[in-house]
Amino acid sequence: MTVNTREIIEAVSIVTDNHDIRVTVKSSAQASLTVAGFTFAGAFILGPLGIPIGATAGGLYAYSKSKGTFKSAAVVIKEEMTDHEKERLCGHVVEAFKNFSAEDVAMLVPLLMTSDALQKIIVTQVMQFLKNELRMQII
Q1: What would the pLDDT profile of 94-111 be if each residue is shown by its tens digit?
Q2: Any transmembrane segments, and where (predicted)?
Q3: Is the dihedral of CA 89, 95, 96, 97 positive or negative?
Q4: What are 20-74's pLDDT values in tens digits?
Q5: Cβ neighbours for 54, distance < 8 A, ≥ 6 positions apart
Q6: Which residues constitute the domain of residue 58?
Q7: Same domain, 80 and 131
Q8: Euclidean distance between CA atoms 82 and 100, whole angstroms
Q9: Contact 24/68 with Cβ under 8 angstroms?
């Protein structure tokens, strides 16, 4: 059975876009440490009143620094993954359907648009791939 990688990747992109799966390009941990640092500084300088002031200032600063670092999984899949990574993702998706017959897999792309159960399988596989293989955080 031959699998058209381009069609599978396009279908996966549509499904992830419909489910609004987003990934972080940079670590969210850095933003939380920034907020904690501002909160500590506010509390150290202003006492108890400095806690909400520092947290607010830290949150705004972290937001300004992390703006644009969250991307749609569909954009990452279509535009930023290498051909090799796309082939690996396609392999993971096809592997999820290993118990299906060849005819079923061939009809997978059209079925994805109508079957919530198949979409759930795809979303799970994509999230695992992005998290485990590409070390991205899913939000």
Answers
A1: 887 777 665 666 676 677
A2: 35-63
A3: positive
A4: 888 876 566 778 889 999 999 999 999 999 999 999 999 999 888 877 777 888 8
A5: 38, 39, 40, 41, 42, 43, 46
A6: 27-67
A7: yes
A8: 28
A9: no
Same-domain pairing of 21 and 40: no
d(CA 112, CA 126): 14
Closest to 118 (Cα-Cα) out of 134, 137, 99, 139:
99
Sequence length of the chain is 139
Residues 49 and 96 in one domain: no
Contacts of 93 (CB under 8 A, 6+ apart): 8, 12, 122, 125, 126
Same domain, residue pair 16 and 81: yes
Indicate if 102 and 79 belong to the same structural domain: yes
Q: Which residue in this structure is represented by tokens 């006492």?
A: 47
Helix (H) or strand (E) holding 43: helix 28-46
- What is the phi/psi pair of residue 130, to 5°? -65, -40
The letter for the amino acid at 124 is T
Give yes or no: residues 47 and 103 share one domain. no
3-state secondary structure of 72: strand
